[in-house]
Design brief:
By secondary structure, the chain is α/β, with parallel strands linked by helices. It contains 11 helices and 10 strands. Strand 2, helix 1 and strand 3 form a beta-alpha-beta unit. The model has no long low-confidence stretch (mean pLDDT about 95).
């Protein structure tokens, strides 16, 4: 990649914005620069009314190899940089979760360590059946503690611990079985599958998607009774929105709704 090429490419089409990690020669590793570039793009999308769905993709045959170990080695004696790096990575993962628009990971190739964390942080994930996943930090003496946060919120405890303790690669098919990705598909239909899913979601009310995504993650951390009380309030408030009333009327009138995103 030439120096004037951005680390993250951005394209938009019919409400779907694709962010593509663009440093294949470095295995799309999450250097500080890459994390800052991705963070800036996610920040801009917050205010982008045209974007309803985000697809996170990558150039080359590695989706993301995790943190840039060369950069980390260069900063072995800089504890402040190390903490800043992991804090910045955590910020990006939380930006994805907090973003009001759904984020779909399009995974072709390998996603390891913080790259696996990136996949797990997305709301949805579709992988080519040739993709592979791992949290291999234990193999190099640096346990995947921050990737563990996202991983353990996607798969069962024992499946997460097996990946974290063995550091072994798992196939896309296995990733689908344990819930790390939604679908593992033939590489030839990966884009068709991802963008068909994205367009289906983009056809919904943006206001409703925002309400639903925020409520989903908030209720996950609540006790059962609190979750029901919270979501009852969310639904009652949602019902007062224009798009909810328009959607109900359109359904009863057997017509297509006209969303105003409010």
């Amino acid at each position: 990649m030439s120096e004037d090429q951005p680390l993250v490419l951005k394209t938009s089409d019919n409400g779907v914005t694709t962010l593509t990690l663009n440093q294949p020669e470095r295995r799309n590793s999450l250097s500080m620069a890459m994390l800052e570039a991705l963070s800036a793009e996610l920040h801009d999308i917050v205010e982008d009314a045209e974007t309803r769905v985000v697809v996170l993709a990558a150039q080359g045959n590695v989706f993301c190899a995790g943190h840039d170990l060369r950069e980390i080695r260069e900063k072995f004696d800089d504890a402040d940089f190390q903490l800043a790096l992991f804090d910045q990575c955590s910020k990006v993962m939380q930006q994805i979760v907090d973003l009001s628009k759904p984020v779909i990971a399009r995974v072709a190739g390998v996603a390891t360590a913080a790259g696996c964390q990136l996949v797990a942080s997305c709301d949805l994930a579709v992988a080519a059946d040739t993709a592979r996943f791992a949290t291999p930090g234990v193999n190099i003496g640096l346990f995947c503690s921050t990737p563990m946060v996202a991983l353990s919120r996607n798969v069962s405890r024992k499946q997460a611990m097996e990946m974290l303790l063995t550091g072994e690669m798992i196939s896309a098919t296995r990733a689908e079985e344990i819930g790390l990705v939604n679908r593992a598909v033939d590489e030839q239909v990966l884009d068709d599958t991802v963008y068909r899913m994205a367009r289906t979601i983009a056809d919904k009310s943006g206001h409703t998607l925002k309400i639903g995504k925020e409520a989903f993650y908030r209720q996950l951390e609540m006790p059962l009774a609190d979750a029901y009380a919270f979501t009852s309030r969310v639904m009652a408030e949602n019902l007062q929105a224009h798009d909810a009333q328009e959607g109900i009327c359109a359904f009863l009138d057997k017509r297509k709704p006209e969303w105003h995103d409010r």
